[in-house]
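Quick one, tokens below:
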């Protein structure tokens, strides 16, 4: 018997089909038996997949065959994140919460379940972008007016990025890209300002860090207490003092150089206001029942992070009518000198005159 083998090749876009005709030449049996084999084409995959750290990524693949195709994923020079990877339908692969260490080249192998066990592979490169991070430290900084300050911006997360600086929302054109610090020279700013460091990466997004720069000025007295005040003994009086400064100074009252504490007899108040477009703090002190110990100098003192300022003094004189305090009976011995003593009070100091009764 003679055996003849003929081959017809049918090519399509998706696959090549080989049809083998095996004919057994027999006088009684002439019947071609078609045997179909298939050349599996390479699976299609994405050459490069880009993802942002923390997101999920799906590797897509496809293969066309007249037989069932199975797909196997692996990572070159590493392992698949087993706890975060999941095989999807049609050969796709899902990686959850992608990390920077997941970056690399992934291989997909497609093979049919025929006896020939043909295997075809394709590759996908995963690029993971870490979102940029920027941080200015400290978040609040106080500098003296007219001085220079250097402000740094810490960045991390990406290799290639640009930094931009903004002052109260306005871009600083004199600051070149990628400068991690700037110097604010001769700070002559009218108020506290907001400086922003924006870290930009085209693939992973941008991050912004901001700080408040307070340009400080020393305390300045804009309202001094009354210079001279005469009050009656037992009466009340009030003094007022106001100061500006940045930051606003804290005020305290002094009496003859000693700090005054609020009490039932002394009331101290503080209020914020504006003066000539600047913030100011106003304080008043009220002494409700003055006495001879109240006499002296009163002034207020303001302090902030820059310096201390003291107002002018208010001289307080407590006026009181002359009084002769009762004295116990006094006795003398005839022929000897005797001293008579009485206590006399009053402000100003009273003039004392001794009288000898005529009847005596």
């Amino acid at each position: 018997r003679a055996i003849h083998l003929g081959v017809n090749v049918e090519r399509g876009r998706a696959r090549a089909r080989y049809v083998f005709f095996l004919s057994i030449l027999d006088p009684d049996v002439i019947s071609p038996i078609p045997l179909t084999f298939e050349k599996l084409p390479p699976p299609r995959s994405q050459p490069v997949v880009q993802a942002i750290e923390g997101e999920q990524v799906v590797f897509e693949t496809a293969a066309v065959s007249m037989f069932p195709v199975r797909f196997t994923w692996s990572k070159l020079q590493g392992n698949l994140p087993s706890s975060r990877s999941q095989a999807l339908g049609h050969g796709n692969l899902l990686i959850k919460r992608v990390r920077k260490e997941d970056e690399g080249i992934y291989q997909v192998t497609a093979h049919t379940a025929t006896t020939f066990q043909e295997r075809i592979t394709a590759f996908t490169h995963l690029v993971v972008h870490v979102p940029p991070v920027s941080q200015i430290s400290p978040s609040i900084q106080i500098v003296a007016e007219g001085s220079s300050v250097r402000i740094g911006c810490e960045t991390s997360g990406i290799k290639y990025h640009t930094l931009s600086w903004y002052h109260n929302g306005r871009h600083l054109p004199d600051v070149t890209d990628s400068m991690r610090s700037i110097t604010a020279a001769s700070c002559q700013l009218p108020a506290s300002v907001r400086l922003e460091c924006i870290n930009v990466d085209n693939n992973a997004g941008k991050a912004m860090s901001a700080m408040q720069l307070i340009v400080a000025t020393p305390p300045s007295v804009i309202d001094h207490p009354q210079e001279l005040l005469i009050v009656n003994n037992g009466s009340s009086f009030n003094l007022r003092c106001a100061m500006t400064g940045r930051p606003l100074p804290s005020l305290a009252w002094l009496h003859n150089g000693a700090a005054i504490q609020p009490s039932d007899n002394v009331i101290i108040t503080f209020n914020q206001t504006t003066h000539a477009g600047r913030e100011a703090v106003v304080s008043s002190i009220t002494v409700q029942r003055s006495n001879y110990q109240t006499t002296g100098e009163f002034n207020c003192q303001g302090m902030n992070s820059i310096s201390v300022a003291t107002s002018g003094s208010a001289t307080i004189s407590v006026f009181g009518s002359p009084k002769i305090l009762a004295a116990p009976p006094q006795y003398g011995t005839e022929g000897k000198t005797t001293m008579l003593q009485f206590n006399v009070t009053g402000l100003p100091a009273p003039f004392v005159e001794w009288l000898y009764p005529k009847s005596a």
